[in-house]
Request: fold
Amino acid sequence: MNVLRTTRPAVGRLGHVVAVTTLIAGGAGVTTVASATPAFASSWTSLYVSPSGHAGASDHSCHTAAYSTISAAVAAARSGSTVHVCAGAYAEAVVVDGKVIHLIGDDATVAPPAAGNTAGLTIEGDGASGSSVTGFTITGAQQEGLLVQHTSHITVRHNRVTGNNLACQPQVNPSLDCGEGLHLRAVSHSRILDNEVSHNTGGIHITDGVPAGSIGEGAFGYTSPSGPSFDNLIEGNSVIANLWDCGISLPSHNSFALGNPAAGGVYDNTVTKNLVLDNGTSGSGGAGILMATPFPGTAAYGNTVTHNVVSGNGHSGVAIHSHAPAQDVHGNVIEYNAIGRNNSIGDNSAGVTQTAGVIVFSAVVPVTGTVITHNQFVDDHFGVWLHNAPGTDTSHNNYLVVDAPVTIS
Reply:
């Protein structure tokens, strides 16, 4: 296999830019998400927020800001507006709902009060389709740092989402869904680009929600906005040291998803060029990148994991889990990744206790159509470990210091 060494910038654990050397296989194209741009309102305006902002100011710059809170500016803004948030810390939970808002932070930190038990920043609803968030630090939220739900065509770029989901720490129940640092729930055609997601309960979480009357409602004890999450692009993010759960996870929680892609499912998403290090190393742990179906009726299929660097995670570097009858995790593709030593605390669900690069496990329904090719595996006992996954393509991988390149259990 031809292996290309490339160096790209990534955001370090303290927010600094560091050089990261990756091993990716050359010669392969990268799938991108193409989507139409929604029609925005015809009135375009800019609003400014500053800790020193005050009503009646001319609102042409940070020095003349007319708003002292982000929430006030969002409430006043017309759909299609840009809200510039100037340097400072903002002790509030921000919600964008029903309108298109472009939030741009300039050394701005959102740190919601603990008493609110909320996400730090929420974008939700069809009316918010086309919104964007750029340049913020989001920290200290009891729930998700950034929650995007029941919407589409959202761009989240160059943010630092760190130290959130505090109400879920320590997470010791592997069946608990904590939402993680950055959560897409029932979201499509969106882009999560070049963010640092670190020191949350888990990293980036892509789900299809928990509808009323579903098995998930009984399992999790709540309902949420639900619908499919598909055609999202997760690219160029540094997902580091989210200690209690997975780095990037794509689980289906919607028991009405099987055979009904309009109702639910996590499918046709692309996870590429991310740095996924040292996640899920405490409590019940988590994989670097996970696709999973926990109970009947759920579906997480047709996703592509490519050109990522994945190492040091508590469970395997990449995992596909199916736990019950009537599930669908077919057709997921794992290719052109650099996968180092993972599974340091062991994957109890699969019963794999030694280090492993990729684990594909099904307790009941055979996992079909899985492609695991052109990856670089380094310093693991198991390169690829398979259980109930007939016909998996494991060709053209490269194994360095790996005791068992491919194991069929």
